[in-house]
Amino acid sequence: MKWFRNLSVVLVTVVLYLLAVQSSIRVKETSDIITILLKEQKLDAGQAKEIQQLEYEEETPIELNCWGEAGEISAECKENGHRIRALLVLTSEKTELIVPESYLLVWQENGCFVDRITASELFGTEQAAGQILWCDGQAYIVCGTFESLRRTILRRAEKADGQILTTISCRISEEGSAAGSAEAFLMRHGLTGTCIDFTYFGCLSHDILLLLPIWLAVRLICRMKRMCREYSDSLNSAEPYVSQIRCVIMYIFPILTAAATLWFLWKQFRVPKDMIPTVWSDFSFWESWWETQRTNLVTMCATAQGEAQLMMLYSFYKSICCAVGALGTFALISDK
């Protein structure tokens, strides 16, 4: 029955670790998106399109989306007469940066996305794709629904909407400081704003995944060392010179393996440059940094990206718990 117990623990470890990896990927998809709150300027649809075109011409272009909240509007379904008020969010291209499910909006003229609560109250179902939504005398085709903390209608901005785009969401793929890359983007286009990023969530969930490989590497090295010791004890003492050479080789091999393994895992660790103080004697850095991140998270949860931020936090905690759980369950059999 011991082998059955060990097999069960291994299966649980594998399942937990795969769940941790899956959740970590979801965290990274959201944490890589940086949000810029414009301070003085407001953009219209034409200006947003111009910035996107200029950015595409850069050597390392930034994937971006300009969006803004236009306040509450009245929405109606004329087929059943249901009417509600919902927050209108106007957006440029790359709408999936704020609502992952809304990529179809780019291909649908006069299309929109609504949250599931709004869809249920207006059309009687959460699966409202294809329904007709009326706002301010204009008909829009519902392309799909999404989860939201508030009643929300998402559609593409038009020139007639004026300067309503006050926020830029961008995904920066290059290595380095996320805030620094965002500041460089603002300077290129003559904009000013506050940069909000949560890249540390993605980095931390990734680093936690390395705990199990490190544990496996340490256990493997210890096993190899024990095998080398047993092998050296069984060598023929009549050939001391040959025995010594074999012992040296057998001991060097696990040392080199350990060094290579630790070097590889060390290269996999990620620490955002924004989390490293420029002066190590700056003891107030961490206090101000955590306070800034807390304020940023509260700010983002009150916007159209709030649902995405909450899902990121859920995936983050799920990834941490599953990774630690996988390490703990595997330790049950590795210590026997």
Polypeptide structure, described:
The chain is α+β, with helices and mostly antiparallel strands. 50% of the residues lie in helices and 19% in strands. It has 9 helices and 9 strands. It has helices at 2-31, 45-56, 116-123, 178-188, 199-208, 211-233, 240-268, 285-301, 306-334; strands spanning 33-38, 63-77, 82-91, 111-115, 132-135, 138-146, 152-156, 167-171, 193-196. Strands 2-3-7-4-6-5 form a 6-stranded mixed beta barrel. Strand 5 and strand 6 form a beta hairpin. Helix 1 runs antiparallel to helix 9, helix 5 (199-208) runs parallel beside helix 9 (306-334) and helix 6 runs antiparallel to helix 7. It starts with a helix and ends with a helix.
